[in-house]
Design brief:
- The protein has about 170 residues and is of the alpha+beta class.
- Helices cover about 45% and strands about 15% of the residues.
- The strands form 2 sheets. It has a 4-stranded antiparallel sheet with strand order 2-3-1-6.
- Strand 4 and strand 5 form a beta hairpin.
- The longest helix is centred in the C-terminal third of the chain and has 26 residues.
- The N and C termini lie far apart (about 55 Å).
Amino acid sequence: QHIEDRLSTIWVGKIPPGVSDDWMKNMLEASSNTTSCHSPTQKCGPVAAWRPGSNKNFGFCDFRNADGALRGMRLMQDLEIGTNKLQTKPDPKSAAHLSEYAQSKVPPDFSGITKEYISPIDKKYDEYAQKAINEIVTTINKLYEDDTAVAVDETLARDLKLYKAKQQREAR
């Protein structure tokens, strides 16, 4: 199996309360059933699984390939949702092969900091993915700001309303 095709896991933390597992997976995964990372409708990449942490403010995303995991870390790091900034890092079991794969993509004549190298094609796919992610985050943030905002997806609205109702019950 080629290194770029290995299952690659990243940790995503500081997920704000009320953002459901479905929404996290939706931000991370490809929007079609393809295993390719090269579709202009995709987000970060094809997801094999999203595994939420015990208290739901973190989780692990298993990408079907290294490109998806690297893109996920690039695009989700410090992404503002509500009052939180997401944090990402490779799972320890994936860190070595992700680093090796990222290094293999750096051209020999590149004179910059190799850790920061992103190929022109990856930059283009990052733009597509970032646009899709921003649409989702805008919807989430509108609901955090204004309970009466019209939700693009009723699932998110329901999830946030349930969370806010629970908060109100606990405050009493």
